[in-house]
Amino acid sequence: MEAQAQGLLETEPLQGRDEDAAASADFSSMLSEQEKEELKAELIQLEDEITTLRQVLSAKERHLVEIKQKLGMNLMNELKQNFSKSWHDMQTTTAYKKTQETLSHAGQKATAAFSNVGTAISKKFGDMRNSPTFKSFEERVETTVTSLKTKVGGTNHGGGSFEEVLSSTAQASAQSSGGGARRAEGEELRC
Q1: pLDDT along the chain (191 residues), means of 10
Q2: What string of DSSP letters covers 116-139?
Q3: Is residue 151 within 8 Å of residue 128, measured between CB atoms?
Q4: Cα(14)–Cα(18) distance, rounded to whole angstroms?
Q5: 3-class secondary structure, 157
Q6: Neighbouring residues of 90: CB distance < 8 A, sequence distance ≥ 6
Q7: Are 125 and 134 in contact (CB under 8 A)?
Q8: Distance, CA of 119 to CA of 64 (rounded, Å)
Q9: Distances in Å between the alpha carbon of 178 and those of 61, 155, 174?
Q10: Residue 43, CB half-sphere, CA atoms under 13 Å: how many?
């Protein structure tokens, strides 16, 4: 008895075999002739309304396509419009605005940090170039270049700038390594 009561109280929709059982049940014996006629008339009316609605929907869809064609709208344009609208909708959300503000603030801080690092590195290179160790190194290179010039046959004894000294050293090194064409015996090397 309890199983029957529970079956009557179920609120789940009919599934598979339940639908088959309900479809095969003969309820016509419980209805009077007048009720049967009313239901048949209602059934015919519903089927007619459904057919009419399908025809109206089909006509409206054709009309929609015609309007879109006249306006030059196609699938690609619709996708672009939908994307633009979605993008605009997303940009107006609070979460997007907060994220944008946070990233903008983080970008400004990162830019300032990189600027500070660049300034610090430039300052360190400047300090290093003015340090006694670097000055001593610069003097040694200058002396070496002058010595090489003298040995190779150059007569320019002016020290010049550090860049000139380095350039001269590179040229002298390339020429003394024999990488170039051989010189005639009497030919003099000039820097």
Answers
A1: 50 59 67 91 96 95 88 79 87 86 88 85 82 82 85 61 74 65 48 48
A2: HHHHHHHHHHHHHHTSHHHHHHHH
A3: no
A4: 5
A5: coil
A6: 96
A7: no
A8: 64
A9: 87, 21, 7
A10: 6
